[in-house]
Design goal:
Elements (H helix, E strand, L loop, with lengths): L7 H14 L3 E5 L2 E4 L2 H6 L6 H16 L2 E7 L3 E7 L8
Antiparallel strand pairs: 1-2, 1-3, 3-4
Length: 92
């Protein structure tokens, strides 16, 4: 992605999650938001409304990518965003 989709506030929020809670990935798909360290993040929800911020960030990226996606964090504060393909579900 060559243009900035996320605001500086969004990036600082994600950096804080990565540094404070050791977040390795954020996945946004039809099942909602998945985080590798979800119980730690949401235990602290009384201090900051993390879920609403994550929802807003996911809306921005999902709209721009026109796809479900996963953000993978690496050392420092670097992350890659990858599109997720939807897999069909089979009903018996």
């Amino acid at each position: 992605m060559s243009e900035n989709i996320l605001s500086l506030e969004d990036l600082k929020f994600l950096e804080n999650l990565h540094q404070k809670y050791g977040i390795d990935f954020l996945r946004f798909d039809e099942n909602g938001i998945k985080i590798n360290n979800e119980h730690i993040v949401f235990d602290d929800i009384s201090n900051v409304d993390y879920y609403n911020m994550l929802t807003e960030i996911s809306k921005k990226l999902k709209y721009r990518l026109n796809s479900n996606f996963q953000m993978n964090f690496s050392s420092g504060f670097k992350f890659d965003v990858e599109r997720l393909s939807s897999f069909p579900t089979f009903n018996d």
